[in-house]
Amino acid sequence: MATLTVTGAGATTITNAVGTTVTKIDGSAATGKLTVVASATATTILGGTTGDDITGGGAADIITGGAGADILAGAAGADTYVFASTGALNGADVFGANIVGGAGADKLNFAAFLPGGSLLSATATEFNGTADTNFANSVVFLASTDAAVAEVDTAAEVAALIQGAGNALSLTSGGKGIVIGGDNSTATPNAKIYFVNDALDGVNGNVSTADVVIVGTATLDIDTLLAANFLFA
């Protein structure tokens, strides 16, 4: 089995014509746009420093978009999407319609940002709740009321639902967590993924808009996501 390495500033397109012997496509050193369509063989794909367009093949692929606003689609198979250690290094990615939750389905790997983390609960926290649920070192589902995810579709809205007393969420001073906002009133495949780092703006104990960074938009129904769909190591 072979590794295909891509470097340089020029745009590069790789399709399944490279054959089933390629099991790794490494574009991490590339500064130009990388367009990949993997073969039917399980492939590890590493994007570069700009907005890439990566599509997996028919097997269980491992996809890292890298920096930039990437377009990522695993295609068939139980794929794993690997996120970076910070929102700035990850970029605001868009995930294709074939990303799915549930047992034996795709996985979101948050180990770099939230090592040792966990899913807080498979039950979503309603955006208009008042329990100040602490989601430190956890992934929390934050439910909107409509398909547009109108109440949780910006960093400012998410920050406002964390900071202060009597809100839906809270975060330990200096802590980190992940918010996946979506509509859980119907089977609506729409979700926003945010990294929250209370220390990002330099002021602990006060979650501001600067502490909240969107890292993904996905056609996911948050009702379908389970603990098995997340990796933290």
What is the averaged pLDDT score?
92
Q: End-to-end distance, in Å?
A: 26 Å
Number of β-strand runs: 20
Structural class computed from helices and strand pairing:
mainly beta
Strand content: 35-45%
**Strand and helix order:** EEEEEEEEEHEEEEEEHEEEEE
Q: How would you characterize this protein structure?
A:
This protein is mainly β and 233 residues long. 4% of the residues lie in helices and 36% in strands. It is built from two helices and 20 strands. The protein has helices spanning 87-90, 155-160, and strands at 2-8, 12-14, 22-30, 34-37, 44-46, 53-55, 62-64, 71-73, 80-82, 93-95, 107-109, 118-119, 125-126, 133-134, 138-144, 169-170, 176-183, 191-197, 212-218, 230-231. The strands form three sheets. Strands 2, 4, 6, 8, 10, 12, 13, 15, 17, 18 and 19 form an eleven-stranded mixed β-sheet that branches. Strands 1-3-5-7-9-11-20 form a seven-stranded parallel β-sheet, with no helix packed on it. The radius of gyration is 18 Å and the shape is globular. The mean pLDDT is 92.
Would you spell out the secondary-structure blueprint of this structure?
Layout: E1 2-8, E2 12-14, E3 22-30, E4 34-37, E5 44-46, E6 53-55, E7 62-64, E8 71-73, E9 80-82, H1 87-90, E10 93-95, E11 107-109, E12 118-119, E13 125-126, E14 133-134, E15 138-144, H2 155-160, E16 169-170, E17 176-183, E18 191-197, E19 212-218, E20 230-231
Parallel strand pairs: 1-3, 2-4, 3-5, 4-6, 5-7, 6-8, 7-9, 8-10, 9-11, 10-19, 11-20, 12-15, 13-15, 14-16, 15-17
Antiparallel strand pairs: 17-18, 18-19
Q: What are the defining features of this structure?
A:
seven-stranded parallel sheet; eleven-stranded mixed sheet; 233 residues; mainly beta; 2 helices
